């Protein structure tokens, strides 16, 4: 997906992927990450997700990245905090207390910029990317974070039935991207009530990679 695709979605308010509450699968399976207060979780392609407020409330530091400036500003505004903004070479860093959000392209991040990460939370990041970008994405995740454990929430459906995003990610895809580097554990797979986009039979799955 080109950056312009996502900017246009945010401009038009077409953000059906955004949930008004923290993701129920995150709440249910968060403990499997075995994190302790003060550790740092990385949230790639974060949008303005409510999951960040929930992760902060668990006493974690959150480092995130999001392309769209409106989304980042909405995230801080909905958290009711004012960010200090620092302009970096290709990214802007929005920072307030335990939250740091890089506004710009995920592929311009470096491990030096994001610092030490203890876990990754990928909800609708891998599934946001077309197949030709996914190997680059998964390699960048591993390189940035030194292959720390991950929770991944993705959707499964018959890809031929609909054009993504979201793109379908099946067990064999998770395996192809990550099996060489991680132990893969499918924690749960649930039916998407009412179907994906209100029409298509789909499952939402959560994986622990350790
Ligand atoms: C499907 S949404 C998911 C947002 C969020 N994870 C959630 O659960 O609500 C994907 C987000 O990734 C952002 N995005 C897409 N490509 C990106 C990139 N290369 N770098 C940073 N953010 C990107 C989009 O602007 C969009 O907000």
TrEMBL record:
MF terms in GO: thiopurine S-methyltransferase activity
Catalytic activity: S-adenosyl-L-methionine + a thiopurine = S-adenosyl-L-homocysteine + a thiopurine S-methylether
Keyword Magnesium on entry: no
Cellular component terms per the entry's GO annotation: cytoplasm
PANTHER family reported in the protein's UniProt record: THIOPURINE S-METHYLTRANSFERASE (PTHR10259)
Family as reported in the entry's similarity comment: Belongs to the class I-like SAM-binding methyltransferase superfamily. TPMT family.
Protein name: Thiopurine S-methyltransferase
Organism: Catenovulum maritimum
Gene: tpm
């Amino acid at each position: 997906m080109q950056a312009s695709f996502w900017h246009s979605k945010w401009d038009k308010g077409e953000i059906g992927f955004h949930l008004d509450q923290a993701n129920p699968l995150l709440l249910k399976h968060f403990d499997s990450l075995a994190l302790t207060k003060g550790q740092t979780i990385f949230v790639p392609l974060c949008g303005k997700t409510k999951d960040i407020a929930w992760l902060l409330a668990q006493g974690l530091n959150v480092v995130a990245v999001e392309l769209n400036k409106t989304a980042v500003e909405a995230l801080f505004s909905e958290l009711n905090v004012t960010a200090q903004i620092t302009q970096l070479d290709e990214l802007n860093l929005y920072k307030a207390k335990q939250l740091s959000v890089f506004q710009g392209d995920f592929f311009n991040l470096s491990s030096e910029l994001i610092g030490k990460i203890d876990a990754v939370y990928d909800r609708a990041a891998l599934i946001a990317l077309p197949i030709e970008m996914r190997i680059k994405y998964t390699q960048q995740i591993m390189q940035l974070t030194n292959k720390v454990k991950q929770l991944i929430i993705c959707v499964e459906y018959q890809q031929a039935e609909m054009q993504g995003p979201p793109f379908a990610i099946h067990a064999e895809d998770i395996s192809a991207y990550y099996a060489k580097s991680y132990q893969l554990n499918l924690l749960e797979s649930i039916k998407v009530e009412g179907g994906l986009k209100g029409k298509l039979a789909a499952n939402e799955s959560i994986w622990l990679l350790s």
